[in-house]
Specification:
The chain has 9 helices and 14 strands. α2 crosses α3 and α6 packs antiparallel against α7. By secondary structure, the protein is of the alpha+beta class. The mean pLDDT is 94. The chain binds ligand DP6. The site of ligand DP6 has 15 residues, from α5.
């Protein structure tokens, strides 16, 4: 247990009710978190770009009670959702020492995603960070806890990590590091920190998500992390991730797009190679994922344009490119890549400014 983040109980359980809301974005890892130990601790440092258009909005309505039990109801996109409700309930129960005030509250949690539920886009990073930001806001609002802005974000990141590792990185704008590394002062396995040394070329980075399949993945990320425990390449992989991290940070600072792109693509392919050599092995990429990768690489070699792919734990391609090549790349996408996407679906995204408070849900349920 991390004493620094223990929560405060309600000091004075009067009749109180109200609501608190946050919008929180998804993120795309450049160096991947793949393998964990202990209580949600990463085997290697990871770094991600925070996205903008792919986000979750969560409103937590609360009313005080004195029963001393967790009492939550959860709706996703306007409908009761038992499986998400159980996951949130299990998370709050397991970590109640960080949220003791929750035992004095009835919570009605409403959540919507900006991206279609069945788009194949993982939502745990945005969903869990939005929830945890709400929880830390609630603690600040209802108890005597006082947080500076950086303490607030650090605690939110710490709690988000306990809910889903990658969610720890979503609470910061632009780019974020989770996991201790000597080149990143202040970095920690317990929470993510903001990475603020990006070269301006990355401030305009696009991330278009080419949807190869909307199907729910056959093996969850949590199960994939577990399979790393017996993967014969595990220790070499963790060492490789640290080495790539050391090489990527200077490239992010200097704006070296060639090196950035090489590491980005190597990481994506390594992630999926690790899945293929797990026991049991499994494959999440699809024929169209490979078709897109081949085409993107060929286009880059022919045109000498900085456009690179990465993947998360699924078949969909994230296409990263700076804004100054937007026109050419978007023509290339329409003419040559869209045909490989399911129903031609592409989610246009870019580096974003991080989470924001909201007073109500702004998205309509899809
Ligand atoms: C491939 O954060 O979804 O996207 O901690 O079990 O919830 P849990 O896993 P999760 O894993 C994300 C894996 C990844 C790489 C990354 O985001 O770094």
């Amino acid at each position: 247990m991390s004493e620094a983040y223990l929560g405060k109980s309600l000091s004075n359980v009067g009749e109180k009710s109200g609501q608190i809301g946050w919008r929180s974005p998804s993120n795309i890892a450049l160096i991947k978190y793949w393998g964990k130990h202990g209580n949600q601790l990463p085997q290697n440092p990871s770094i991600s770009f925070t996205l903008s258009n792919a986000f979750t909005e969560t409103i937590v309505k609360y009313a005080t009670h004195s029963r001393g039990t967790i009492d939550i109801a959860f709706t996703f996109e306007g409908k009761a959702n038992a499986s998400f409700e159980n996951r949130i309930s299990a998370f709050l129960n397991k970590n109640i020492s960080y949220f003791p005030f929750v035992n004095s509250l009835s919570l009605s949690i409403e959540s919507n995603n900006s991206f279609p539920h069945s788009s194949g886009i993982a939502s745990s990073a945005s969903a869990m960070s939005a929830l945890c930001l709400c929880m830390v806001s609630l603690e600040q609002h209802l108890t005597e806890a006082v947080f500076s802005q950086s303490e607030f974000l650090q605690k939110s990141s710490f709690l988000s990590r306990l809910a889903s590792g990658s969610a720890s990185r979503s609470v910061y704008p632009s780019a974020s590091i989770w996991g201790q590394h000597s080149l990143a002062p202040g970095s920690s396995d317990l929470y993510a920190i903001a990475y603020e040394e990006l070269h301006p070329i990355f401030a305009t980075m696009h991330d278009d998500i080419l949807i190869v399949s909307k199907a729910k993945k056959s093996v969850s990320s949590t199960a994939g992390h577990n399979l790393m425990k017996d993967n014969v390449f595990a220790s070499a992989r963790y060492e490789q991730a640290r080495t790539r991290f050391s090489k990527l940070l200077p490239a992010l600072q200097s704006g070296d797009l060639d090196l950035f792109g090489k590491i980005l693509e190597d990481e994506a392919l390594t992630l999926h190679a690790l899945m293929m050599c797990s026991d049991p092995s499994y494959i999440l990429i699809e024929p169209n994922t490979l078709a897109l990768i081949q085409r993107i690489r060929a286009y880059r070699y022919e045109q000498k344009i900085p456009v690179y792919f990465t993947l998360d734990a699924g078949p969909n391609i994230h296409l990263l490119y700076p804004d100054d090549v937007r026109t050419q790349v978007q023509t290339f996408i329409q003419e040559e890549l869209r045909q490989h996407c399911e129903d031609g679906r592409i989610i246009e995204d870019y580096i974003g400014t991080g989470p924001a408070r909201i007073d109500s849900l702004t998205l309509t349920s899809s």
